[in-house]
User: What shape does this take?
Amino acid sequence: DIQMTQSPSSLSASVGDRVTITCRASQSISTHLNWYQQKPGQAPKLLIYYASSLQSGVPSRFSGSRSGTDFTLTISSLQPEDFATYYCQQSYSTPDTFGQGTRLEIK
Amino acid sequence: EVQLVESGGGLVQPGGSLKLSCAASGFSFSGFAMDWVRQAPGKGLEWVGRIRIKAYNYATLYAASVKGRFTVSRDDSKNTTYLQMNSLELEDTAVYYCTRQVSSGWYVWFDPWGQGTLVTVSS
Assistant: This one.
């Protein structure tokens, strides 16, 4: 199975900060990488697919990028509604696997 | 509006069985593979299984942790997918989400997700 390693596991930041979350795949997955946001008590929500394509309706302050097997989710200017847990997911091969999550908290 | 609504969760004893349902609306259900993903309390997301569309003979795939115990099925006439869970273990306690697999060429992602249904395995 492909292992997805996210870092950091938790992060404290302030409204207006620029935040970066990283996900590393254990092998090449091309751009078969998706990002989800999950708020407490809610289902996950798709933010980014294909590593860098923004899902319809998702604010443009969210962006994704790839460098080899390293993937990055960036929030350019944190808003209060962005405090949540973020997961990466590889869809290159079955079983689909998720990172362990990054909890983004208010500083 | 594209919507997925799970039902059927509850409390079950170890070794018992439970069948979850996921009713879809707002899209052409028969044209999409459907997946189940679970989340143990306070933990991350774990993919459980998938059922493909009729054109792929409704092929199913499972995580190693549930293979042989869980079965994914679908009824396209009812726009519903099911997760039959047998020989349940304490470690199967989780919120179970159904989700639609969206594809573009070889690229796939999950969108949307249902609200989830809680399965608690306990004696």
